[in-house]
């Protein structure tokens, strides 16, 4: 499954700054950052449940917002890039 994960974390407090770093770290464990608060993710159905659970535990649902968009298979390979954006090969080999 291919997904876009986007988030908007309220960083007006020190706790919000910590939540932002935690959400980013969680997303980095599942996908590739393509913009400051946007990740492209290729995961299984079971993994998306884990991702949602981790993110739900990390945020303040009264002030933060996370959106997970499921996109059709191979959509990320067809993304058009403008400006300094670099294409990402999600289905090739990755070194971690």
Portion of residues within helices: 25-40%
Structural class: alpha+beta
Distance N terminus to C terminus?
Answer: 20 Å
CATH C-level class is Alpha Beta
Largest sheet: 4 strands, antiparallel
Mean pLDDT over the residues: 91
Proportion of residues in extended strands: 25-35%
* Parts with pLDDT < 50 across at least 5 consecutive residues: none
SSE inventory with pairings:
Layout: E1 2-8, H1 14-28, E2 31-35, E3 38-42, H2 45-58, E4 65-71
Antiparallel strand pairs: 1-3, 1-4, 2-3
Helix pairs in contact: 1-2
Keywords:
alpha+beta, 30% helix, single chain, 2 helices, 25% strand, four-stranded antiparallel β-sheet, 4 strands
Kindly describe this structure.
The protein has two helices and four strands; from the N terminus they run E-H-E-E-H-E. With 96 residues, the protein is of the alpha+beta class. It starts with a strand and ends in a 25-residue tail after the last strand. It is globular, with a radius of gyration of 14 Å. It has helices at residues 14-28, 45-58, and strands at 2-8, 31-35, 38-42, 65-71. It has one domain: Alpha-Beta Plaits, CATH 3.30.70. The mean pLDDT is 91. Strands 2-3-1-4 form a four-stranded antiparallel β-sheet, with helices on one face. The longest helix is centred in the first third of the chain and has 15 residues, at 14-28.
